[in-house]
Amino acid sequence: MGSSASRKFDPATDLVDLKGKVAIVTGGNAGIGFGTVQHLARGGAKVYLAARNEERATGAIARLREAGYAPGNGEVVWLKLDLSDPRDAKKAAEAFLKKEERLDILVNNAGILSGPFEKTSDGVSTMVVVNYISPFVFTRTLLPLLTETARKPDSDVRIVNLASITAKLTPSNVSFKTIEDFNVTGRGSLMPGLVRYGHSKFLDILWTKTLQKRLDAASPPIPITAIAIHPGGVDTFTHRWVFPRFFGWLVGLFVADVEHGAYTSVFAAAGKGVRERREVYGGMYLESKPVGRIARTRTDGRVEDERLGREMWETTERFLEGIGV
């Protein structure tokens, strides 16, 4: 499945020159994030693998080094990042700013897929904090450096937010007037957990589109490309099963392996096609078949609602101001 789904995109030939470029990939120690880090490093970038657990992060980096970074011979280093608290997300971004003088690519990949409904000590859904609010803070803190890099000659700065096709499950009466509106429980639905996840990814898509509008409306416009993507079905689990090789082969008949499952992320982060048509891809939502396909979100136009986007942004900012972030 991996090869057929990715036939029209090949990271070995279809990436921009990444030598001298700096990237951050959150949640890069496993799954799609791991594959994204690998492709960007092989393209020649210095990639910060942002993750909470040092042991898992350094273990992932060791596996990447063992596999090799050729032909681009990039570099991978760990950046401590905990998305469970927006305050910690800000600290991680500030730590990065002390290390580097440019940032060309930011891939907000990390997130929670499932779990019971629960709130953080600040009174907001844990899933929304991890999947949207903390990435919002992380990105906002890094934005001055992203902007500075984008102003350099021959720049190609991108922000990629991993979303999901499940955004279509967001309730039709979605609103973001108060922070309590972010606490969708999914109660009454057949799959409440999936509704909560889809709602958090709806936020990511709406955020991406609103961010692009704000970048374009700046004076002068900030030449950063913001893209939301649905990576498609990816096998990030059979390695933990009994007989992983067999089940990996079986599951691979239906979904992509990690290497190919990261292709949409990598296309959005560094594909030549985006650079050549930035005005087309800015603020768009992409799906994986074929890689980089601009798609409809099936949300009845709700993610295109500029009023809703402003409402979401303003409520997020008020909440962050209230907790001192």
Automatic annotation (TrEMBL):
<dbReference type="Pfam" id="PF00106">
    <property type="entry name" value="adh_short"/>
</dbReference>
<keyword id="KW-0560">Oxidoreductase</keyword>
<protein>
    <recommendedName>
        <fullName>NAD(P)-binding protein</fullName>
    </recommendedName>
</protein>
<dbReference type="GO" id="GO:0016491">
    <property type="term" value="F:oxidoreductase activity"/>
</dbReference>
<dbReference type="InterPro" id="IPR036291">
    <property type="entry name" value="NAD(P)-bd_dom_sf"/>
</dbReference>
<dbReference type="InterPro" id="IPR002347">
    <property type="entry name" value="SDR_fam"/>
</dbReference>
<comment type="similarity">
    <text>Belongs to the short-chain dehydrogenases/reductases (SDR) family.</text>
</comment>
